[in-house]
From TrEMBL:
Keywords: Cell membrane, G-protein coupled receptor, Glycoprotein, Membrane, Receptor, Transducer, Transmembrane, Transmembrane helix. The keyword Transcription regulation does not apply. SUPFAM superfamilies: Family A G protein-coupled receptor-like. Its main location: membrane. Residues 34-200 form the G-protein coupled receptors family 1 profile domain. This is Melanocortin receptor 1. One of its GO terms (molecular function) is melanocortin receptor activity. The gene is mc1r. The keyword Glycoprotein applies. InterPro entries: GPCR_Rhodpsn, GPCR_Rhodpsn_7TM, MC3-5R, Melcrt_ACTH_rcpt.
Length: 200
C-alpha cells in the first residue's frame, strides 16, 4: 500500500480514480485480514501453550495435526471474510469491532499467560520445599516474571500504537494532536510486522 501511495504521489503511476479506490480497498482488506489472523494466531498459540502445560499427558490426543490444520484454515477464512465485510461497510462501527476484538485477545492472552506463570511459581515452590531449598523458587519466579514481561511487553509495544491509532480515530479525529499521531501510520504497521519477527 505504501509503495502504491508513493508511486501515485510522485506521479510515477497514473491510474483512474476508480482503480485507485479498488486498489485501496484490496490493500485494506489484506491489511485487515492479516491483522485479524495475526491476533487470532497469537491467541491460538497462547491456548496451545496452556494445553501443553495443563494437559501435558493428553496434549497429543487433544492437539492432533488434523485439528491444527483445521484451526489454521478456520482462522484465515474467518479473517478474510470478516475483513471483506469490514471494508464493504467502511466506518466507525468497523473500527469499534476491531478495537473490541483486540481488547478481547489481550484479555485472553494475558489471562492464560498469568495463569501459566502462577502454576509454574507454585510448582517451583513445591519442588523447593521437597528439596528444602529456598533460593530456587525465587530465582525461577524471577525468570518466569521476566519472560512473561518480555512476552506481553513486546506484544503491547508492537500492537499498542496501531490500536491507539484506531481508538483516536473514534474519539478525536479532528484534533491537531490526534492528526499528528495519525501521520505515523506506516510505522505502526511496521511494528506489527516486527511482532511476528521477534515474538519469543
Amino acid at each position: 500500500e505504501t509503495l502504491f501511495m508513493l508511486l501515485l504521489e510522485h506521479e510515477m503511476m497514473v491510474v483512474q480514480p476508480t482503480t485507485v479506490m479498488h486498489l485501496d480497498n484490496a490493500m485494506d482488506m489484506l491489511i485487515c485480514s492479516s491483522l485479524m489472523s495475526s491476533l487470532s494466531f497469537l491467541g491460538v498459540i497462547a491456548i496451545d501453550r496452556y494445553i501443553t502445560i495443563f494437559y501435558a499427558l493428553r496434549y497429543h490426543s487433544i492437539m492432533t495435526i488434523q485439528r491444527a490444520v483445521t484451526i489454521i484454515v478456520v482462522v484465515w477464512v474467518v479473517s478474510s471474510i470478516s475483513s471483506t465485510i469490514f471494508i464493504a461497510y467502511d466506518g466507525k462501527a468497523v473500527i469499534l469491532c476491531l478495537v473490541i476484538f483486540f481488547l478481547s485477545m489481550i484479555t485472553l492472552i494475558m489471562g492464560l499467560y498469568i495463569h501459566m506463570f502462577s502454576l509454574a511459581h507454585q510448582h517451583a515452590r513445591r519442588i523447593s520445599s521437597l528439596q528444602r531449598k529456598q533460593s530456587a523458587p525465587h530465582f525461577t519466579s524471577m525468570r518466569g516474571a521476566i519472560t512473561l514481561t518480555i512476552l506481553l511487553g513486546v506484544f503491547f509495544i508492537c500492537w499498542g500504537p496501531f490500536f491507539l491509532h484506531l481508538i483516536l480515530i473514534l474519539t478525536c479525529p479532528e484534533k491537531p494532536a490526534c492528526n499528528c499521531y495519525f501521520r505515523y501510520f506506516n510505522l505502526y504497521l511496521i511494528l506489527l510486522i516486527c511482532n511476528s519477527v521477534v515474538d519469543p
